[in-house]
Specification:
The chain is of the alpha+beta class. The protein has three helices and twelve strands. The strands form three sheets. It has a five-stranded mixed sheet with strand order 9-8-12-11-10. It has a four-stranded antiparallel sheet with strand order 2-5-1-6, covered by helices on one side. Strands 4-3-7 form a three-stranded mixed sheet, with no helix packed on it. A hairpin with a 4-residue loop joins strand 10 and strand 11. It is elongated, with a radius of gyration of 18 Å. It starts with a strand and ends with a strand.
Amino acid sequence: MWYVIQVFGGKEQTTLDLLKRFVDEGVLQEAFVPRREVMRRNDGVTTRVIEVLFPGYLFVVTETPRELCAQLKGVPAFTRMLSGSDKRFIPLNQSEIDCLEEFCGVNRVVEMSRGVIEGDKVRVSEGPLKGHEGIIKKIDRHKQCAYVDMEFMGRTKSIKLGLEIVRKNS
């Protein structure tokens, strides 16, 4: 099962490293920070950068969430497994897992997509958004990104993903 751990924003990688050091390997099958590839402009130069997809969250795969939660107390950083009002840990549902695996792949990074605008429609030719044009809610051509609505922990969240529009046909 996949679970979400809340951490301080900006400290995701540091906390992930601590988590891997202080939690037994038998308890933790996998721990990762999903990331996205986007274009960032700095001093007139546009470069590809990798940034955190869900700031303030780590994702873990474990079959023993109670044991993991107990071992999180030994991690010298703020970590809190997300749970419901009944104190039971909430795993991601299968559709959320499938969506993350499809977009992030094995390297856990949502890569840049490329596409064209034809009239008022977007056609993505390569990248994780290919075939998912229907979920794109907004495109920012200047920032080279698309905003999509993604289900996350039972709520719909607007996520920014990299989308390079190579041309626009009228």
